[in-house]
Structures
1.
Amino acid sequence: MAGASREAAVLSDVRLWASRWSLRLPAVALALLVLAWVTRDAALTVIGAVLVAEDPLQPAEVLVVSMANGAADAIEVGRLYREGYGREIVVPTWRSEPVDAAVRALGVPHLGATELATAVLEHSGVPRDAVHVLPGSVDGTETEVAAVAAFARERQPVSLMVVTARSHAARAKWLLRRALPSGTQVMVRSPRDDAFEASSWWHSRDEAREAMAEYLRWINTLLGDLWR
């Protein structure tokens, strides 16, 4: 009987606890929803800021045009060169796409990504002998970093500044610091008119799409470039 009484008492306590929490849970859930709503901008800003790296602007021995956004990156590098922030420029060779040859076959004037970047530099007033187009071909940030690292190991520049899309910058810097010779200082910048902003990316469909894609690229990078 005593055991039955204890079980009944325990069951009564459990029912009382459940009854109390059944009344509290909606209030707790509502409070959490309100907190999430109030802090959403701060949380989303952190999510965007993780993707961005922007080093202080200072002169570098070599400026690198990333193919992440070739034309915009080349325009920025042309500006930096004219402003005296670098003496030499490196341009990776982006792989040729089948559509490039198809467009040219139609007789339509068309420049591939690397040709467009070098043309932008030339029309920005950069002397041809200051531009070095790297051999081989790249198809993404990992292969681009590998090509730049090979150049750095051969030439041993004291400092190197890579201009890339703002949403790519943190990942590019993370890869560069692991691939470049220890004696080469690496800086990463983005074009000053790059549209991606950590504090507002979720207001733009294009920027939101880019942020989500970059997080997938981070996962791929950390897992060892599964797409290669």
2.
Amino acid sequence: MDMPMPKPNNHGFSLLGKKSLVLSHIPMFMPPHQAQLFLEVTLAGSGKEDPTRIYLEDQAKTKTTNYVLVTDPIVLPNLAPHAAKRITSFTGKLFRGWPFNTPNDAPVVVEKLTVHVTRSIYFQDITKGKLLTELTYLAFASPETEYLVHKLVQPPDLAKAPKPPDFVQILSATCMAGDKIHDVKELYFPGVSNNLTHRLKAGQKATGEMSGKKVHVDTQAELIYDPNHLI
């Protein structure tokens, strides 16, 4: 039996990339935000306003790397690659920094924009799945960048989970996996405990396994690291 869909809600996405833009949903261990979701997108503004140009100019000026796009109310699972009623556009606004503090002191970079989804890359409900004992990342590539995103699985009992219960992390990297990674693949590190102490660091060389084969990884920049906002 299909579970009922959540009601429309506002959702936050980390905006990544320069020439090829990627949105990574900001997951939380609370409904309706319990999902990892990656999208390739383009941005459109009103009139002659170009949100991408504004974002890149702001980034160059401030040297900030953390930009969050907050959507107007949407049903998040409708952005999944195989959603029955998949949506391909939605509206929102773009902030520099973290816009969920009280009070919100993150500057608005673009007050109103439209997101056009060119590729829905991945959707996974993080309440479903076995807890991960070995360090595991989701690897995928845009035309510009290869990304590693730490895979999340929500503990069945948050009251008994470690503090913090897990961590959000996104890195740019090069994965020597033979073919270029397009669709999401799991990259795990045998014998390495799945906790923030053992997370990959920027500028690190490591060897993991993907699809039954050894893969050499060179990490580049740590784009997002957040152990504090899952709950």
